Amino acid sequence: MSLRSRFTRRTRITLIGIAAGGVAAAIVVVPSLADSGSSEPAAVAAQADYGPEPEADSKLVTQAGGVSTMATATLSPDTMINRARTWLTANNGGPVPYSMERVWKDGYRQDCSGFVSMALGLGKPGLNTVGLADSKSGVTTRLGSVSQLKKGDLLIDYRTDDGDFRHVVIFEKWADTAHSAYYAYEQRGTYGTTYRQLKYGIGSDNYDPFRPVKLGGGTGGGGGGQVPSPSVSWPVLKSGSQGADVKSAQQLLTAQGYPVAADSSFGPNTRAAVVKFQKSRSLAADGVIGPNTWAKLIKVVKSGSSGSAVKAAQTQLNVYNYGLAVDGGFGTKTRSAVVAFQKNHKLEVDGVVGPNTWRTLLGSR
Asked: Which of 228, 231, 263 has the alpha carbon at shortest distance from 249?
């Protein structure tokens, strides 16, 4: 790993290399991981494998001869974002871990450019960051300014003249009318797949805006009927929230070993339980249940399962008028309701309440 350092006004990314006995350590200052989308800085330790990405001639990078395997049909922004979302929960309900030396089950490299290659449907195991920005690859075209950014566009730091740190993120939407920050998906060291507010490219830094050349304007499909529609997103729950989503969250907290009354009201006791759970999972302990916390909080339930997690699923199914007894037993009636729900929402019909079904149950209203 290169021990060069870089500091910019906007990203506030600092790499501090400490070499001792041949061992290097690094600290990266980045925007926080709070589920609420805060962009305040927080110091986090970088993984040892977070540094120089695979070079163009590496076996871990799609070669020139593999360009023909890249998606040729126009890709809708919504389909691209749906693909990116799948990695938030693909690892048994959690994010795909970061690595520049490994590929995920779908065949794509587990670093930032491998993640983007997956979202774009490019040849496996994916281009590196420089390849994504290189006009010779024919994958992207550079935009004139960040003000032109639309859903599915990329912000890429592809420079090779200022050290080995390179990165790419997927733009989803602006966070405010002033365009001072935006929501994005990224694959990064320590945390893996993340959805949060960023400011890369706004101000003076090395991030430039790019648009995938085959990114169309349609809404497109959800990916084989197994990915929730673009309008489906995890609800954000916090102090003062009420309703069935809160009740399900309380039941899931109990299932995870943090018992709290399932009274449908997000009060002090629920917040305290959420904070304890977040700390136990190395999440930002802000007491807010957002995408990152939901990904860790849900549990896969199916025929034969029992307990509070099943009650949470039954609570959600009843929101859609399935009339189940919330008894914590995953029997034939609960499975039939799950199958019906999956068919109605164009999900994979397997009768199992996994990450995609959970997100659709909680986010379709």
From this structure: 263
Tally Cβ neighbours within 10 Å of residue 141: 12
Q: Give the integer Cα–Cα distance in Å for 14 and 43.
A: 10
Choose among 123, 67, 126: nearest CA to 96.
126
pLDDT at 59: 57
Q: What is the DSSP letter of 237?
A: B
As a whole number of angstroms, the distance between CA 328 and CA 98 comes to 35
Long-range pairs for 282-286 at CB < 8 Å and ≥24 separation? 283/33, 283/35, 284/32, 284/33, 284/34, 284/35, 284/42, 286/34, 286/35, 286/36, 286/38
CB neighbour class for 8 (10 Å; exposed up to 12, middle 13-18, buried from 19): middle
Pair of tokens at residue 351: 């009768």
Phi, psi values for residue 242, rounded to 5°:
-145, 160
Extract the residue ranges of the chain whose pLDDT is less than 70. 1-74, 160-164, 216-231, 364-365
Query: Are the CB atoms for 167 and 176 separated by under 8 Å?
Result: no
Q: Which residues, in sequence order, are CB contacts of 303 under 8 Å at separation 6+?
A: 330, 331, 332, 335, 351
pTM (two decimals): 0.49
The amino acid at residue 54 is: P
* pLDDT tens string 170-180: 999 988 888 88
The token pair at 302 is 């199916």
Residue 273 carries which side chain, given as an amino acid letter?
A
- Distance between CA 228 and CA 79 in Å, rounded? 10
